[in-house]
Structure formats: C-alpha cells, structure tokens
Amino acid sequence: MSALFVLLLLIGMAAIVWSACFVGCGFDPTPKQVTVFDNYQSAVRDTPGLVAYWPLNDTAGTVATDLGPNHFNGTYTTAPDVTKYDNANFSDAAPGTFTLNQPNIVAGDVLSATGNPPGDANPCVFFNGGFVSVPWQAALGPPLPPQFTLEAWVVPNWTSFDATNSRSFRAVVGCAAAVGGVFTGFTLYANRDNLWEAAIGIGSQDVPATAGSNATPGSNQTIVQGSLYFLVVTYDGTTLTLWVNPADTTQPPDGSVGASGFMPLPSPVPFFIGTGRPDLSTPLFPFNGYIQDVAFYNVVLDNQQIATRYMNGLGMTMS
Q1: Could you report the per-residue pLDDT of 109-131, keeping only the tens digit for each?
Q2: Do residue 311 and residue 227 come from a single domain?
Q3: Are residues 25 and 109 both part of a single domain?
Q4: What CA–CA distance (Å, rounded) separates 162 from 167?
Q5: Cα separation of 150 and 219, whole Å?
Q6: Number of folded domains in the chain?
Q7: 3-state SS of the chain: helix, strand, coil percent to 5?
C-alpha cells in the first residue's frame, strides 16, 4: 500500500467523522446574542410615563439636573447643623451637608446623555442632612387619578449604634406634610426599626406629623450599612407596593397594602431628595448615605420593567 494511498484514506476518514459530528453534535455556527445592561440612563429616559429623572451625577455647582422631559431641576442645599438626636420626632443628628462627585454606586450607569463611552462611571452624591429641593410641580403630586412609580438607588451609611440608639426616620425621597395632624403626600424612607418603608396619606385617620401614614408597606429585612439597595414604590390608586432589590418579581413584593383614597398635598411643598422636612425650623428626618438615579413616573411600572431596571442598574450581562 503506497504512502499516498494511506494519506488519502486517513483524510477521507477524518472528513466522515467531522461530518457526523457536525450533524449529530448540534453545532450551531450562529453567534449567541449577548445583552449588556450598561446604559441605565437611556433605559430610564426611554420609559413611557417618565416625569422626572435626577441621576445626581452633578460634579459641581448647586443644580441637580433633571434629565426627564420636563426638566424639573432641583437645588443642592445645605441645612442647619443639628447636633442632637430628636427623641420626640425620632430624627437623627446631622451636620446638614452634601458632597458631590462621589464614587458610582449604580454599576450600569456608565453611559450618559452626552454619550460617555462604557466604563465612564457616573458619580453620585453623599447626603448627611443636606438635600435636593425641587420646586413644587403638580406633575410630582401626583395628579389625580393617582398612580405613580418612584425609584432610587441608595447605600446607607448610619452606624449600627445609631440604628439601635438613635432610632430614626431617614427619608430618601419625600413630598409630604402633616396638615391638621393628617399625613398627606408620599415618602420613601428607613423607619425607626431600621427597615425600608413607604407611606402615602389616605386621610382615614389622624397621625402625628412624625409618623408615616396608615398605608405603610415595609420590608422585614434589616438594613445593612454599606450595602446597595434599589428601592421601588408603586401606587395604582388602590394598592401601595414596595420592592427592595427586586431580582425576581415573580415572587411577592417586600411590602404591599391596600391604600384607597390618596390625599395629595393641599399646598405647594417641594419634592425633597435626601431628607424629609427641611422646611421646618429644625430640619427633620435626614438621610445619611449615598443616593443615585432617582426617578418619578406617572404610571405603574410592571413587574418585568422593574426587574429589568434592576438588571440595568447592576450592569448585568445576559446571553
């Protein structure tokens, strides 16, 4: 048998084996599509029903830019230095400060409206009694019939000692007031038990100015300092719902409660980020920690939208 014949035989056998594997092994030459959730700002801006969106990535000045369609810009504001814990109102001490241009906490927020390339992480703001004040707008009320979604990314920074010994309300976002002892408006906050909670006024009972309302869905997971939280509040006119890090929205939310009869604010009160009642002579309910990407919608985002937004924020890659 010649060497040439042997070589041709081996080549032919190899071709047969390769062919069999090509058919039987299910080889798919089509490249898999990979989805990278790395453009959080565009995801928010492209969502129908967006009213306002404050990425809080401002690096200088006092303007908190709203990238939403209405351009409801806010103002970064310092507050008086509160040196003592307010036991009567359950409000912690705070120096009344804010610090711009802090390290990014939302991994997917790496592209801006101006087209920064991937890897250009947008910064955030550290709040400790300072706040953003957005002038009153009817669209942030929300208008009747009431339905809205409120979302924010936060990293809390109070100590375990404060959580235990200075049990306080710590407002992330709020547009609320107590009128004649009746809570009106809405707020998203950490409560005195160091749990995330949301509240709206529904007017069915009088409550102290420092209390939430009688519609307060809350998470039962203790807040861990230095951890990242994506907080989403939805209200459809009858039910108030709170999601905390909603990775799987096929499961029940962290809190949900019937809440018919929403009472919007009867008088213009600013929309605050980073505190609860800075308009009082002694400010109340300061947040201590990082906040980024606060958005407000006049629609209820569905479960899939909420889960996708969470993936966007984490900068996840899926194939």
Answers
A1: 986 555 555 567 899 999 999 99
A2: yes
A3: no
A4: 7
A5: 16
A6: 2
A7: 15, 30, 50
